[in-house]
Design a protein that fits this description.
Oligomer: single chain
Helix content: 25-40%
Distance between the termini: 41 Å
Shape: globular
Length: about 675
């Protein structure tokens, strides 16, 4: 199951239809601006979705094909064993069955939207057969599309971590040492110098692949005018702004998944006890197709009253999670896209179909809002059940079936402090201390986060002396590269900083660089270079050991590693961060700023010749201001460019701006887009 983890971080995907498209491509305009960003204009929402599918396929068809194969449960035909493992989990979770069960509960307009997107992908595939890398990808249908969405949200909700634990495949993830993260800020007009609400969208995501953000502008004549970011396969904007309001997502970590141990019948290993009766496990044989293997591989998937079930040498366990009990999460995003004011937006949230994500919101009507969103089950409060651990799966007392209303979740509406923020930390530290929620008043079985991280503490430091925020100050906060005065990592690092450099000549120079470091993640910083390797070493060495201070011996071992690494790969120890860490696009490798858990976070992996390549972190960045009159004022930047095709002029044309922390103006004004567009065309060839 180890190989499943890189694959299973997917978010929203696609599919396609075999019937002729009801939309007219001649009514769809794709306008590309000077950075190649697609602005899609059409009379209807489905036609806009059609145009989005076509435009995104022009820019990254290879990735889209991988993502759509997932919806068909045929990723193994493209990626071999790794893909087959994802296909197995799709079957285990019964993603397609859920879609079929709930299909008729969805709005006709939403189904039409998906069909438009699906038809656009199929049309592009038909028009460009030489670009099809995987024969089994096309044609697709809408139910396959939604199957992929259900699967991807289930993965985001923890299946990628819980299932390997059940099967004994991986060590647990260490809080604070993972690459999932984002920042989001909203300021009320009362807290800004201009009297405008301000919103910052700052996702920390993989820079390339199936969860890299793609920027687009979608406008129909049916009240849809939205600009922002989406993942490959998204038929709408995941977070961004429309004419009246906008929001940013960050990942939250409340308890989204429960594990139950079944009490099995000693005389029949396919029966489990439930309320005193032996009940048969449901089983189904599946066939997995694996690239390079001529015959299909047979597997059996199991299901209990609790949900997806796995047999292991340690027992039989079931997973139960809201994410694979509600197929309408994407429809909720559609309603959020179309909302015109906070009441409509909150009405969309009240669907509680989106099973996770913090939401930071601002609008032109002087409203800011934050909610730790989720589809939270009503769990039995009896203290004999520890919902943070394995729960007995032999009684209806643990089989939850109801969900909490949106009003029961932690949320802030226009706090007197005038701002809200989240950096993947506790929802009970979301604004000035005097106005934070009391976590003790919320159900402990929901498992809402109670921790700070380096970014949240640093925001507190930055806001301490700020009375009112102007736009340059907002950007300065977002682009801050400083760790807080005291590190907030799972492991105390004092022993490193307290070593006597004179006593350790074998690693004296890098130790001095670390100890004299100003704790800024700058590309020209020697201390940051040392800390990068310290972080990498300790995150692996101490994985799964729990929070504690590192010992003096571990500090010495760490510095010996850094010294040896520097000399082996670079032949010197006076390196700066940019010597080691690179932002890479094709053959272009540039010195990169950023470290894990600063506000300008970057996470890197081995590259070549001892260097490291940034693989995730600061990605799509968007600043929005909401004046009282007129459209929002928008500036944004993406890490590389709009296209993933190396031959495109937009393959890396935002890279320099990104490195210099510069932004490009964007607009929701159709006339302005068409006036300045570099090309305008129909999705027909």
């Amino acid at each position: 199951m180890k190989l499943i983890l890189p694959l299973l971080l997917i978010f929203s995907i696609q599919s396609a239809a075999q019937s002729p498209s009801p939309v007219n491509p001649q009514r769809i305009q794709i306008a590309r601006d000077s950075f190649g960003i697609p602005h899609i204009f059409a009379p209807t929402d489905p036609e806009v979705a059609y145009g989005l599918a076509w435009a995104h396929a022009e820019d990254d068809f290879a990735t889209l094909q991988l993502v759509v194969l997932m919806g068909k449960g045929k990723l193994g035909t493209a990626l071999g064993r790794k893909g087959a493992e994802a296909d197995y989990v799709i079957n285990l979770l019964r993603c397609r069955e859920l879609v079929d069960e709930q299909w008729n509960t969805m709005g006709d307009d939403f189904i039409a939207l998906m069909k438009g997107y699906v038809d656009g992908l199929n049309a592009y595939a038909r028009a460009h057969p030489k670009q099809i890398k995987y024969k089994k990808a096309f044609p697709l249908d809408e139910r396959e599309y939604l199957t992929a969405v259900v699967f991807s949200t289930s993965i985001f909700c923890g299946v990628d971590k819980m299932l390997p634990k059940i099967l004994g495949g991986t060590m647990p993830v260490i809080p604070g040492f993972n690459a999932q993260g984002s920042n989001a800020f909203a300021f009320h007009p009362s807290r800004t110098t201009t009297g405008e609400a301000m919103l910052t969208i700052n996702a920390h995501q993989p820079l390339e692949g199936m969860t890299a953000f793609y920027e687009a502008h979608l406008q129909s004549e049916q009240g849809w005018n939205m600009l922002g970011g989406l993942f490959p396969g998204g038929c709408l904007i995941f977070h961004g702004t429309n004419e009246n309001l906008g929001w940013a997502h960050t990942v939250n970590y409340q308890d989204k998944i429960d594990v139950f141990q079944l009490e099995m019948n000693p005389a029949n290993n396919n029966q489990y006890k439930f309320d005193g009766e032996w009940v048969d496990l449901e089983s189904r044989k599946i066939k997995l197709e694996v690239k390079g293997i001529p015959v299909k591989i047979g597997r059996t998937v199991y299901w209990s009253k609790y949900g997806a079930t796995a047999k292991t040498s340690n027992g039989v366990f079931s997973m139960r999670l809201p994410a694979n009990m509600d197929a309408k999460g994407l429809e909720q995003w559609y309603r959020m896209n179309k909302a015109k004011n906070f009441s409509e937006f909150y009405g969309a949230l009240s669907m509680t179909s989106l099973p996770m994500f913090n939401i930071i919101y601002a609008d032109r009507y002087d409203t800011i809002f934050y909610i730790s969103n989720g589809k939270m089950p009503v769990r039995n409060p009896d203290p004999q059940y520890d919902w943070s651990s394995t729960v007995p799966g032999n009684t209806s007392k643990t089989l939850w079936t109801a969900f909490k209303p949106i009003g029961s979740l932690p949320q802030y509406l226009n706090p007197p402090s005038g701002y809200v923020f989240n950096t993947n930390h506790s929802p009970f530290f979301a604004t000035d201390e005097a106005y934070n929620l009391d976590g003790k008043k919320f159900d402990k079985n929901d498992g809402f986060e109670t921790f700070h991280n380096n970014r949240s503490i640093r925001v507190g430091e930055l806001m301490k002396d700020v009375q009112k925020v102007d736009y340059p100050t907002l950007k300065r906060i977002k682009y801050d590269q400083q760790f807080p005065a005291v590190f907030e990592f799972p492991y105390g690092l004092d022993s490193l900083f307290n070593l006597d450099a004179d006593a350790y000549p074998q690693f004296q120079q890098p130790l001095i660089s670390l100890q004299q470091w100003d704790r800024k993640a700058l590309a020209d910083s020697k201390g940051a270079a040392v800390f990068l390797m310290v972080y990498d070493f300790l995150s692996k060495k101490l994985a799964g050991t729990g929070s504690r201070a590192i010992t003096k011996g571990e500090a010495i071992e760490t510095m010996n590693f850094v010294q040896t690494y520097f000399m082996k790969h670079f032949g010197r120890t006076d390196l700066v961060l940019g010597d080691i860490q690179k932002l890479v696009r094709g053959k272009d490798a540039r010195p990169a700023w950023g470290l894990p858990d600063v506000l300008t976070a970057e996470y890197s992996a081995p590259y070549k010749n001892g260097m490291r390549k940034v693989i995730s972190g600061d990605a799509y960045i968007c600043f929005v201001r909401y004046p009282k009159n007129g459209l929002p004022i928008i500036e944004s930047v993406n890490t590389f460019g709009a296209s993933s095709n190396p031959g495109s002029p937009h393959y890396e044309d935002q890279m320099e701006m990104f490195q210099k922390q510069q932004l490009k103006p964007m607009t929701l004004d159709k006339a302005e887009v068409l006036r300045t567009a570099k090309s305008v065309y129909h999705p027909t060839k």
